[in-house]
């Protein structure tokens, strides 16, 4: 909406409101004007509203504070003596008592002597002392005499708060100005370069000076919102048409010729999805996805496509066990979901809960649990993650490994990173509760696929202690008495784990998982 499209009545009303604004209510007037103009523009009532009858609440509150000012009563006392009231005259007010100096001479003399003593104690401020013949005035509780220095100081202070009123333009600029709200018209009647178009500005815009490029140009930029930089004027729009481009960290201002626009990035995403299904080359996929994310960031593209890119990259990172890259995608997705962009927030919320369980971040976990809504808790993925959290909080390893076996979506990939930690903790509990256990029971309880995996896990932690490791030796053949027989090991499904002897090794194995590796964490 150009500057000429705003009705003159609206401009005059805004100018009147800005002229009434003071330093104390300038921000309130500015905010209320912005809301009214936005609402009127959205409803299409800019030209139909009688702006002369619209009152601002911020200015009305100021009027209520300043209209009723109680005037203190002034007492017309010319002397310090007291006496009977004089006879009424045409100039006197009925009921007003005016003392006479001739009454009570003793009190008048005493008052004059006291006043003379006080005057001697005053410092010499350059003013002439009153003569003895001058009349002493009774000090009023509301009006005091001022010295020349005090009067000069008050005059200087009042001058500091005075606003120039030479022209209408300067007065309006002191509080924001109508030109900054509707844009200055150029010679052709169009909107000037410094106008704000259809978006009204704010009182008290500030200037920013940068270092060149991407919103940091050396030119002065006028902000619409004092707290938000207007990046739209400096946003890059790419012109590159290559579908594949390697990732390179930016060390200078990016060139539009090296940045792919949105429609090219959409084609690139389809290409990367097909290639990932074919060969699962994570090094190639990581390089291409980071390059796509960089192009989206440089062009400030935040829409459904941006969410899709980060979600796919996050899932691929989980599948490749790259928690650092996944965490970067997760952090950006949280910001995009907060903007109201559609995606799969419930799925990645469950992943975030699993990630916090892996990192043992209790403070962030408590904050997240307090912010969950009833609808989010009913989501199957989120409910599964909360059940996992409850099983770990109560050390219920049986329930934990059942949930591990039935993890939905890609939660199992995150649980793979801390399942060994929970297995050694479960073995420490089991070794204190039982004397012996079959290896088959250990395999089933700790969600191993086969007994061989359970046996290798025990060997890695020096806890592979069995009561029947070998089969009893058989009778040697008479002709081979000089050659010892090789020991025969018991099959894995028949072995019995010695819990009591393996407890010390299990307790020592817990120390191995005290520190959690947080590669790439940016939270």
From TrEMBL:
Q: Where is the composition biased (Polar residues)?
A: 98-112, 129-147
Annotated region (Disordered) at 63-207
- Low complexity composition-biased segments: 165-175
Q: Which InterPro entries match?
A: PCI_dom, SAC3/GANP/THP3, SAC3/GANP/THP3_conserved
Q: Which PROSITE patterns match?
A: PCI
Any one cellular-component term (Gene Ontology): nucleus
Question: What domain of life is recorded for the organism?
Answer: Eukaryota
Q: What is this protein called?
A: Uncharacterized protein
High-level lineage: Eukaryota, Fungi, Dikarya, Basidiomycota, Agaricomycotina
């Amino acid at each position: 909406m150009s500057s000429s499209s705003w009705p003159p009545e609206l401009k005059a009303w805004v100018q009147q409101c800005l002229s009434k604004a003071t330093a104390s209510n300038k921000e309130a007037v500015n905010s209320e004007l912005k809301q009214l103009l936005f609402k009127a523009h959205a409803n299409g009532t800019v030209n139909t509203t009688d702006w002369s009858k619209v009152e601002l609440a911020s200015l009305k509150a100021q009027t209520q504070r300043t209209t009723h000012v109680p005037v203190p009563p002034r007492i017309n006392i010319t002397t310090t003596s007291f006496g009977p009231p004089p006879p009424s005259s045409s100039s006197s007010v009925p009921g007003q008592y005016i003392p006479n100096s001739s009454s009570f001479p003793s009190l008048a003399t005493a008052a004059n002597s006291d006043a003379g003593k006080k005057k001697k104690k005053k410092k010499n401020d350059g003013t002439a002392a009153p003569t003895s013949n001058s009349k002493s005035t009774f000090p009023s509780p509301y009006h005091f005499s001022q010295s020349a220095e005090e009067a000069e100081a008050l005059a200087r202070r009042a001058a500091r708060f005075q606003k120039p009123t030479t022209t209408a333009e300067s007065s309006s600029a002191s509080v924001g100005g109508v030109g900054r709200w509707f844009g200055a018209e150029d010679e052709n009647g169009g909107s000037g370069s410094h106008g704000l178009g259809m978006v009204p500005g704010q009182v008290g815009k500030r200037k920013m000076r940068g270092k060149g490029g991407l919103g940091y140009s050396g030119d002065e930029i006028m902000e619409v919102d004092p707290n938000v930089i207007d990046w739209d004027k400096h946003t890059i729009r790419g012109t590159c048409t290559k579908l594949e481009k390697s990732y390179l960290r930016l060390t200078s201002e990016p060139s539009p010729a090296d940045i792919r626009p949105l429609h090219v990035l959409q084609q690139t995403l389809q290409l990367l999805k097909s290639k990932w299904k074919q060969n699962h080359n994570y090094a190639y996929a990581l390089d291409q996805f980071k390059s796509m994310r960089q192009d989206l960031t440089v062009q400030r593209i935040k829409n459904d496509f941006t969410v899709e890119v980060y979600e796919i990259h996050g899932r691929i990172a989980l599948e490749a066990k790259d928690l650092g890259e996944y965490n970067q995608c997760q952090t950006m997705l949280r910001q995009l979901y907060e903007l109201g962009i559609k995606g799969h927030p419930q799925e990645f919320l469950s992943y975030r809960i699993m990630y916090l369980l892996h990192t043992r971040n209790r403070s962030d976990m408590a904050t997240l649990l307090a912010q969950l809504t009833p609808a989010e808790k009913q989501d199957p993925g989120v409910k599964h993650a909360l059940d996992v959290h409850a099983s770990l909080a109560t050390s219920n390893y049986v329930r934990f490994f059942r949930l591990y076996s039935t993890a939905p979506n890609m939660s199992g990939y995150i649980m793979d990173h801390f399942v060994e930690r929970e297995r050694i903790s479960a073995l420490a509990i089991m070794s204190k509760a039982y004397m012996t256990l079959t290896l088959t029971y250990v395999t089933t309880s700790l969600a191993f696929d086969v007994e061989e995996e359970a046996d290798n896990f025990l060997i890695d932690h020096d806890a592979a202690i069995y009561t029947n490791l070998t089969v009893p030796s058989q009778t040697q053949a008479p002709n081979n008495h000089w050659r010892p027989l090789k020991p025969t090991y018991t099959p894995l499904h028949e072995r019995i784990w010695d819990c009591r002897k393996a407890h010390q090794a299990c307790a020592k194995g817990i120390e191995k998982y005290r520190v959690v590796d947080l590669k790439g964490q940016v939270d």
